[in-house]
Design goal:
The chain is of the alpha/beta class and about 500 residues long. Helix 3 runs parallel beside helix 14 and helix 6 crosses helix 7. The longest helix has 18 residues.
């Protein structure tokens, strides 16, 4: 919804701009060249800049913006009126591409015949449109103030180095089209700011869009590609519901996500990948809900076989041809186990480089909705912490350092206010409290009891908030310095007003 609203006010503003983008280009006096890097965040299917809020703020702070603000980029396109596109809702013939955005499915789920999806790539492709305008704004700008002029972009955003790209309408775009739009956005940044190096971070289908950019376009200097829960080998087969099915939500992009679609076959072809990743360090981060263990007699080996509720772990771990550093995040960690299952070829001898303990999102949701993990990992501080280090380090050099909090509840509660039910920690001054430290291991910290927690938010100043049952009462402490690899005692005493 936020993405749609964002592009609605982009359109309204740009309709009133009397000049075309080319005529607005002005000579920019640049400061002396310095070695700088920028991070480009690329969203997934039917997503937008809002999904990156927590991670983008952390990344921006690391790159020197003290308030954690970052730049959102929106694009407006003009579709070639004579272009014809294959549409999965009616595959008998190609239709004018201008009609794609107006299609509404009559049948909620419409299966596409396997041979048709293997024969066609669906949706708007590159060279069938042009990007007519690119607008920038700060993420915390609640107004409709968009900056489209190059000189104004430089004056307003010259210090920012984290950019969130919004595609025009990616549920109707092929991977190649998304890669082409990504090129326009990155080239726009390069024409305005002094950037020497780019790091691409793509979530879900955004990882495929990032790959399409690297494999198909003349790129800027891309030093790293980090994909998060990306279906490199597809979602599921065309015989299943999740991928390969045209819906009013996923539209043509969902069909292209099928593991045996022509779109993925083209993207993953050896000739499309060859020599494209020289000098690019690739990290594949994935989430698995759990392990598949040895049988009752002890035969077989443990391996990760579960998904994030949407994408199988084998698909998230990607292709060997990219020479990726593979990391599995999971609530179930077993020392020495790094194998994972590839459901496409039913092999279990594939190896990740490391595993990292993570949150069990199915239990936290209380409805056991495992699909929650697919997007919530963008708020998961284990993911964020890894990426913060991956900006400057190789995978092997990344270390996880924790602070230990010993939390003492010294309040004498009445029966109706009987403990600490939520405990939050955030960077001082951040706008988001993040995840609750009291997870599935315990429901509360009762009166006169204590509990210990580990947090990656250390060697920094933090704010801490504790709440009672249903969020009342509230206790808060601000600007507390937490050293890494040390113990810190936190004493909580709720007001009894």
């Amino acid at each position: 919804m936020y993405q749609k609203l964002f592009f609605m006010f982009i359109t309204l503003l740009l309709m009133g701009c009397g000049e075309a983008r080319d005529s607005e280009e002005e000579e920019i006096t640049k400061v002396q060249k310095v070695n700088t890097k920028a991070i480009i965040l690329v969203h997934g299917l039917n997503s937008g800049s809002s999904t990156w809020s927590v991670m983008a703020e952390e990344l921006s702070r690391q790159l020197g913006i003290t308030d954690g603000t970052y730049v959102e980029i929106g694009m407006e396109i003009e579709i070639n009126s004579s272009a014809k596109c294959w549409d999965a809702y009616g595959v008998n013939e190609a239709i004018p591409c201008t009609q794609l955005t107006d299609i509404e499915a009559q049948d909620t789920f419409r299966k596409v015949h396997r041979s048709q999806a293997q024969e066609y790539i669906f949706g708007l492709d590159k060279n069938q449109f042009k990007v007519s305008n690119i607008a920038w704004r700060l993420n915390n700008d609640s107004s409709t103030h968009l900056v489209t002029n190059s000189s104004d972009k430089y004056k307003t955003f010259s210090q920012h180095r984290v950019f969130v790209v919004n595609f025009s309408n990616n549920n109707q775009l092929t991977y190649d089209a998304q890669g082409a739009q990504l090129k326009e956005a990155i080239d726009d940044i390069s024409n305005i700011l002094d950037i020497d190096e780019y790091i691409l971070i793509g979530h879900s289908m955004g990882g495929l869009a990032s790959r399409a950019y690297i494999q198909n376009e003349t790129t800027q200097n891309i030093s790293k590609l980090i994909t998060i829960n990306t279906p490199h080998l597809g979602g599921k087969s065309l015989a299943t519901l999740a991928a390969g099915t045209y819906t009013v939500i996923g539209k043509n992009a969902a069909v292209n996500l099928a593991s045996d679609s022509k779109a993925l076959s083209k993207l993953n072809a050896p000739t499309a990948i060859a020599n494209k990743y020289e000098g690019v360090e690739v990290h594949h981060l994935g989430y698995s809900d759990g392990l598949y263990g040895a049988d009752a007699l002890g035969y077989g080996e443990d391996y990760y076989s579960e998904s994030d509720g949407i994408v199988d772990i084998g698909s998230q771990m990607g292709l060997d041809a990219l020479n990726p550093y593979r990391v599995i995040f999971s609530p179930t960690i077993k020392e020495g186990v790094v194998s994972y299952e590839n459901l496409l070829d039913n092999t279990i001898d594939n190896q990740a480089n490391r595993t990292v303990p993570s949150t069990n999102y199915g239990i936290i949701d209380l409805h056991f909705d495992l699909t929650l993990a697919h997007t919530m990992v963008l708020h998961d501080y284990e993911y964020i912490y890894y990426i913060l280090q991956a900006i400057d380090k190789s995978g092997e050099a990344i270390e996880f350092r924790y602070a230990t909090l010993h939390v003492h509840n010294t309040t004498d509660f009445t029966f109706s206010r009987d403990g600490i039910y939520q405990l939050y920690i955030r960077n001082s001054g951040s706008s988001d409290w993040g995840e609750d430290l009291i997870e599935e291991s315990q429901l509360s910290i009762a009166s006169q009891e204590q509990a210990s927690f580990q947090t990656l938010k250390c060697d920094r100043y933090v704010d801490i908030k504790a709440t009672g049952f249903l969020g009342d009462p509230v206790w808060e402490q601000y600007s507390l310095y937490l050293p890494c690899e040390e113990n810190s005692d936190i004493t909580i005493l709720f007001s009894q007003d």
